[in-house]
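Protein modeling request. Please complete all fields; requests missing the sequence field cannot be processed.
Requester role: graduate student
Desired output: 3D structure, token encoding
Chains: 1
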Amino acid sequence: MLKNKMVKDTYCILNGHLISIYEPGVAFNNRAFRYGDSLFESIRLCNNKLMFLKDHIARLKLGMTVLRMNLPAEFSSENIQELIIQLLKHNTHAPNARIRLTVFRNEGGYYTPETNDISFLIESEELPTIYELNQKGLWTDIYADIKKPINKLSGIKSGNGLLYVMAGLARQSMKLDECFLINENGSICESISSNIFVVKNGTIYTAPLTEGCVAGVMRKQIMSIATQSRILTFESPLTVNTLMNGDEVFLTNCIRGIQWVGQFKQQFYTNKMAQLFTDKLNQLTQ
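Delivered output (286 residues):
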């Protein structure tokens, strides 16, 4: 006779309330589901430390302003941190985890909203380690079927991710590890989930935000670490030639930290600078 096994429940936080992920909490006419009318942040817990939370909340608030969402008075870094800690405790997701904070406009209306009030959802997922550089370099190429437009929506983390979905499907079909995206000017602006850095003769180059890339929180940290380490950094448009002439190419996002690129087209790279920045990042987790 089979015994019933106890299934560990997993929780999320909806508008400040702890609920089971199996408990229906989002309406079928949710605007994030219907129109992608939402923003999100992916936040990293390393060694029980929430990394760069204030920068995440600042970017989220900026995006909410762009989308004309009402900002609740209690929506502060301190309050969000308390809720995240509560969730991690109930889910026993520690010492390393991924946290997703999603903000969406409340239901009502079709394309034109009936309200600008918002709801928010916090989810967590356990991760095995702190920042760890990939052992094998990524094999990459360009996704050029759809160009990323440059406008005031380009830099925010929107729930409308169809461009990245299509690039991900292309990556699968080409059997690549990652794809680089092209903006409306024909420059390389970012990858599917990361900002791009190119190293040449010890100097770092990355696309400016005016090129349409997401305003990455990890991008900001890497540029700050480079300044502190007296590594020269330039923001300039990236082209195929920029990457082909580089000594190193690495990608940055807040969950993985840094991933080094091993090959782009016929060009191969090393990872000395990527390892240096990974070590510097892990010092911040202490």
